[in-house]
UniProtKB/TrEMBL annotation, chain B:
Species annotation: Homo sapiens (Human)
Keyword Acetylation: yes
Entry-linked InterPro entries: ExoRNase_PH_dom1, ExoRNase_PH_dom2, ExoRNase_PH_dom2_sf, Exosome_comp_Rrp42_subfam, PNPase/RNase_PH_dom_sf, Ribosomal_Su5_D2-typ_SF
Any one GO cellular component localisation term in the record: nucleolus
Family, similarity comment: Belongs to the RNase PH family.
Annotated keywords: Acetylation, Cytoplasm, Exosome, Nucleus, RNA-binding, rRNA processing
Known partners and oligomeric status: Component of the RNA exosome core complex (Exo-9), composed of EXOSC1, EXOSC2, EXOSC3, EXOSC4, EXOSC5, EXOSC6, EXOSC7, EXOSC8 and EXOSC9; within the complex interacts with EXOSC2 and EXOSC4. The catalytically inactive RNA exosome core complex (Exo-9) associates with the catalytic subunit EXOSC10/RRP6. Exo-9 may associate with DIS3 to form the nucleolar exosome complex, or DIS3L to form the cytoplasmic exosome complex. Exo-9 is formed by a hexameric base ring consisting of the heterodimers EXOSC4-EXOSC9, EXOSC5-EXOSC8 and EXOSC6-EXOSC7, and a cap ring consisting of EXOSC1, EXOSC2 and EXOSC3.
PANTHER family the UniProt entry points to: EXOSOME COMPLEX COMPONENT RRP42, EXOSOME COMPLEX EXONUCLEASE RIBOSOMAL RNA PROCESSING PROTEIN
Exoribonuclease phosphorolytic domain boundaries: 32-166, 196-261
Protein name, UniProt field: Exosome component 7
Gene3D superfamilies: GHMP Kinase, N-terminal domain (3.30.230.70)
Amino acid sequence: MAGLELLSDQGYRVDGRRAGELRKIQARMGVFAQADGSAYIEQGNTKALAVVYGPHEIRGSRARALPDRALVNCQYSSATFSTGERKRRPHGDRKSCEMGLQLRQTFEAAILTQLHPRSQIDIYVQADGGTYAACVNAATLAVLDAGIPMRDFVCACSAGFVDGTALADLSHVEEAAGGPQLALALLPASGQIALLEMDARLHEDHLERVLEAAAQAARDVHTLLDRVVRQHVREASILLGD
Amino acid sequence: MASVTLSEAEKVYIVHGVQEDLRVDGRGREDYRCVEVETDVVSNTSGSARVKLGHTDILVGVKAEMGTPKLEKPNEGYLEFFVDCSASATPEFEGRGGDDLGTEIANTLYRIFNNKSSVDLKTLCISPREHCWVLYVDVLLLECGGNLFDAISIAVKAALFNTRIPRVRVLEDEEGSKDIELSDDPYDCIRLSVENVPCIVTLCKIGYRHVVDATLQEEACSLASLLVSVTSKGVVTCMRKVGKGSLDPESIFEMMETGKRVGKVLHASLQSVVHKEESLGPKRQKVGFLG
C-alpha cells in the first residue's frame, strides 16, 4: 500500500508495536448475572462480549439431540454501529453465519461434550467489527464462567507476513492492507490446533514462521486469560467467605 | 419479553406485597432500581450511551450520516431507529426470534419522537431539499431484566445528549453546483438540545395498584401495563396500553398522574448525571463493561 509502511526499518509497526507484540488485552468475567456464563474482552480497539447458556435441554426439534454428546450452538452478531460505515443487519448475513460455524467448530473440539448428552450449549458472541480471535477468547472465558468442562483454554490470535517478518496480532489497519492473514485457535497445554484459517497467498516456505508467530502469540494470550480467570476465582471465593 | 416462570404462591406474595407498598426487593411502588448511565462508550459513533437498570443492560449508538430530506419535510433532518435484541439476553432471541420485540420497541420510539417539539429537526438540515443529517439511533439489548422501555428511552436520551455532529458549510460554485465542506477542527460540532426529549415510564398494574419499574417477576404477575412518555416538564407526548388484561378508566388516570410525577424526577436526575459526567471532561476514566 503506497505511503503506509506496515513495518518500519527499525522494526516498528504502525501502532508502535514490535513484530511479536500483542495489543493491550483487558478482560472481565461474569458481566451479566442472568446468563449462565458471560465475559467481555477488549483487545486493542476490538471489543467482544460472549454469553453462554447451558447445558440445557434442546430447544426446538428434539430430533437434533445427539445421544452421546452435547450440541454446541453458536451465533455471532456485530452491532450495527460498530463498523466505520453503519451495518444494516446485525446477524444473518454470510460473514456472521460463517463466523458462527467457525466458533462452533472450535468449541466442539474443546468442550467435553460427552459429559452432557442430549443437551445444548449456546454461545452468543456480540462483537465490535469482529475479528475471530477476540470472539474466541471472549467465548473461552464465558464458557469457563459458566462452569462447562473444557479440555483446555482455547486461545486465538491472528498473524500476518510483511517484508519477510511474521507479525502477530493484526490490527484493523494491518488487516485492511491486504496481505496474508492467518487465524489460529490453539489449545495451549497440548499445543493442539483447534482451528486454522488463512486468507490471501503465502509461499509455503514462510508458513512455518507465520504459524510459529501465531502459536507464540496464542500462548501469550493464554497467560493473560489464565491470570484473569484466577483473579475472578479469587474474588468469587473472597465473596463466598472461603 | 423474556419470561420467567413463577409459582402461584410467588405471584400471590408479590401481589400482596404491592398492596402494602413493599415490593420483593424492598422498594416502594414508585421507586426505580439503581440506574447506571455512562455516555461515550463506543468510539466510532457520533454519540453513545450504556444504561444498566438492575439486570437490564442497554447499549445505544448514534451515527450521523448525510442523506436527503424527506419530501414532505424539506427543511428538516430525521431520526431512524433500529432495535436489535441480542441473543445474549435470552436464547429465544436467537436468529429471527428477537425481531418481533425489536420492531415493537422501534415503533414505540418512532411514535414518541413523532412530534415537533421532541428534537429540533431543523438543526439537522444542511441545505433545504438537498442535504440533511440523518441520525441512525441503534439500540442493542444485551440483557433483559424487566422494564425495557424505560431503560431504552433513558439510554436514547443520554446518547442523543452525547451526540456530536460535525459542522459543515455549503459552498456554492460559480456554476451553481454545491460543495459540502467539513470543518477542519474535529471538535467543532453541533450538539442537540435534549430538553424536550421524552422518557418512557412503564406502569404495571399488579392487583389493584400499579408499580413503576417492574422486574421480570413482577411483569409476570401483571396483566396490563401503561406506557407513558413524559418530557421533563411533565408533558405527556404518547400513551399506550400493553398487555392481555384490561384497565378501567380511573386507574388509567391515576397511572398517568403517577407517570408524570415520576417522569419529572427521572428527568431531573438524568440531567444532573449526564451534566456531571460531561463536566469531568475528556480525561475521565471510561469504565464500560470492565467496571
